[in-house]
Specification:
Layout (H helix, E strand, L loop, with lengths): L2 H8 L4 E4 L2 E4 L4 H14 L7 H17 L4 H8 L4 H18 L2
Helix pairs in contact: 3-4, 3-5, 4-5
């Protein structure tokens, strides 16, 4: 992540300026991190947790198994960008379930 991107998130936080250096309170670090993660996750950039990825895959697999839906429709419902993304996720989840429950 670039310095400009980080600056965008901390612009409105209170800081003490000494010369050209801005000093922030470390207590805001948690808030800054949360802002960056939530925003980048909303844009589909930064990592969703393993748990979230599994839930999304399982949802896609359920939709494929129970509904007679096309991959494009499943992609729209589950938030995948492409049909191939859904296809890969569904097959990965099938393999995972075979590994857990042979």
């Amino acid at each position: 992540m670039s310095l400009q991107t980080v600056r965008k998130y901390i612009r409105d936080l209170p800081a003490i300026t000494v010369g050209r250096t801005r000093i922030y309170d470390a207590a805001y670090l948690q808030e800054i991190t949360a802002r960056i993660l939530l925003n980048s996750r909303a844009q589909g950039k930064a990592g969703a947790s393993k748990h979230e990825v599994r839930e999304r895959r399982q949802r896609a697999l359920e939709l494929r198994a129970h509904g007679n839906l096309r991959y494009a429709d499943i992609a729209r419902l589950t938030g995948y960008k492409t049909e191939s993304g859904v296809w890969r996720a569904i097959n990965a989840e099938r393999r995972q379930q075979l590994r857990v429950h042979p």
